[in-house]
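In response to a reviewer's request, we include the raw inputs and outputs for one of the modeled complexes. The two entities were modeled together in a single run.
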Amino acid sequence: MAGVELKNLSKAYGQTEVLHDINLSIADGEFIVFVGPSGCGKSTLLRMIAGLEEITGGELLIGDARANELSPKQRDIAMVFQSYALYPQMTVAENMGFSLSLEGKSKAEIAEKVQEAADALQLGPYLDRKPGQLSGGQRQRVAIGRAIVRKPKVFLLDEPLSNLDAALRSETRVEISELHQRMETTMIYVTHDQVEAMTMADRIVVLNGGCIEQVGSPMDLYNNPASEFVAGFIGSPKMNFIKGPQATAVGATTLGVRPEHFEVGPSDGAWAGKVALVERLGHDTVLYVHAEDAGALTVSLSGQHQQQVGDTVYLKPRPEFIHKFDQNGRPITM
Amino acid sequence: MARKWILLFILGVIAVLMAAPLVLTVFTSLKPTTELVNPAWYPPRDMTFEHYLRVWTEGGFSRYFANTLIISAVDAVVMIAIASLAAYAMVFMEFRGKMLLQLLFVLGLMIPVTAVVLPLFQIVRSMGLLNTHLGVILADLALAVSVFVFMFTSYFAGVPKALHEAARIDGATEFQIYRRVVMPIATPAVVTTALLEFLWSWNDLLLRLLIMTREEMRTLSVGLLNFQGTMTRDVTGLSSGTVIMAIPVVLLFLVFQRSFVRGMTAGAVK
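The model returned the following structure tokens for the whole complex.
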């Protein structure tokens, strides 16, 4: 096990710099998630840590030792790929034991460690199968098994759930979190799905345009976003942004109100709007409202409500949860 | 329905045209000399293997067969090794001069064999390798390597990059990745290379005529010329020799047909 430190890390392809001055300290045993939109550089950053991409500038430390020039093997890391990247000609057991066989471990030792990992991931019955004979979820578990069998210092996971269907995704999400709790190994996880980030991470790193926008615990990011971008990226349904007179009246360029921070009530002083769409989720009711003063708003009401398309509703943001942003998208502290 | 019959008829005609020379050759090789006055398409009435025996012993075909087998087998095996290693480097590794090397290989595809045969002969002679198996093998490899590097490159390009990366993370060296990860999934390309190179080497005449001038070093294709003089022609000997020469290639193709077709069509569709 080891911590990871990124010091002024940068990456350029020719003249084009895609990652700028990344500074981050990841504690030993921490579960950290890189999140951001497509093209923000999160996978590139992970691949730089893995040793699959050359580091153009700055320094990478794994367990206090400089790792810039080390090969992936020397870094003692394991990686789970989005595409699983299982060796198609090998059985599940051979896939999982491949790294150990390269280390020259005895067959008995390999078999024991593979069995141990397979038991942890309920892969016991599939050890003699080839990857082509497994379902997507089973393949992903084999990919994770291949990583854990080595007991590396750091686990890297590159969008490991994005090829799974929704039900399997949430199931595997829980399995990975439990695995992390059991193994207490540093895990760095890349995703574009903020729900995965919020539910799994000790800390989230939000990346945008090759820069770190904010680092913090999921609730930190949710409650105190460091920018309009983070505020919009974290949370589902996403935060409403209101510009115009409502914002300028309180000295801001943009007001941010999360969908669950609206009160629906009487008309006095509230924003009137027409319901354009209703999503009934059972535990929540989500209204898409066209407000005359505030534009298109998403409102999330706890529980089941009777509003219909075409109804007029009066919305009042709860003042203690209003976020104010200046013209640069930075929060205005009160 | 009518279209189907027309199609079947056309295919039948093509099949007969393709098979006829082979069938006639087999017929002739099995006919006693007395039956040679009959038209060629008459099947043999008193089938005999005497011509095969004559060609194999007196005609020196046992030696020619061994020479051809050694050269073709070594050609095929070495070609697989060389072409796959070169293609692996082209696809999976980054190094200075890679583009130039790729260009050179493409250039190799464009130059006709006849244009380089004489320089190649000079090189083999200057190396003192005339009338040696090694001389012909080196010349064969030099002539065909571009084709097979190109074929392996196309095949390897279809191997997901993530597999290579996963193996690197697992701690494999480039050679271990080549041997344990990439080559086992390149069976169709390996079989196709083996078959094609074996076939080309087996059937080649020009290089062998130039390089293998001594009688005991001849290959089957050169040996066949023994039966064809300026004024005379030993038709039965020629036919039996041709069949002897064709049998191994036909057998190989029948055994590896499926992998061969897969290799030839690799990358054709997603």
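As requested, we also summarize the result in words. Chain B touches chain A through 16 residues (CB under 8 Å). Residues 68-234+261-266 of chain B form a domain with the MetI-like fold fold (CATH 1.10.3720.10).
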